[in-house]
Amino acid sequence: MIWTHLVLNTVDGCIAWFYLFRKIKPGFWIFLWFCIVWAIQIQLVMQIIINRIALLMSDQHRARQLKWITFVIVGIIGVVVTVVWMPASLQISPMWIEVNKVWDRLKQCILTVMDVCLNFYFLHMVRKHLIANGLQKYKYLYNYNAAMVGLVVLLDATLIGLMSLQVKYAYLQFQIIVYLTRFYIEMANADLIRKIISRANFDNDNSSVLVRTSSFVDGEHPLHTASPLSQGRHQQATPSAEAFALPRFSN
């Protein structure tokens, strides 16, 4: 989904620039393209966030419900945008233009609230089920996502502000930057989770090496059957691999 989002954003950005420099004439099909691609990008952004949340949910049925509810809400918003924005852009009547001025801002506010709610739910899951259970290595993931929520709100607020400028479609250019920034945030999130788990697995391997070394010092051979005492030491020094994976918890 992340790479689909990048490809769509890149293609949409190129077409938008051609349109803004009047290389492509305004018309029904170009406006329909903008509406469809915008709706798909919003769906991808929301579903990517929910996928992060689903990593920490034990009830995958509830995760699927969250995905479908979000899909339906964003789908309805996309249909309304198409119905309102296209007639306004084609300047069919002054009424549609005035309605679009209100709806454009309202739509962006709704999407911002949805984005923030999903991200705060993810932060809640990380804090409650990972950090609170002693997995302090996820603190950086928590702090990073908290900062990114602030950045997303700032970008959306700027986008809403650009809708009030006299320069027509100025927000269309900035919208490309907003979605590229979201792409970078999600890529950085995935990389951060990978590094945390990889580092934990590396520490786990080091613990195993220390146990094997101590066995030789104690005169024990690691291939021989260990005594109950040495088994206890081994179990204490070598935590299971599951301890370092992203666990699933009930909500």
UniProtKB/TrEMBL annotation:
Keywords: Membrane, Transmembrane, Transmembrane helix. The keyword Iron does not apply. The chain crosses the membrane at residues 28-54, 66-85, 105-123, 144-163. PANTHER family: INTEGRAL MEMBRANE PROTEIN (PTHR35179:SF1), PROTEIN CBG02620 (PTHR35179). This is Transmembrane protein. The lineage of its organism: Eukaryota, Fungi, Dikarya, Ascomycota, Pezizomycotina.
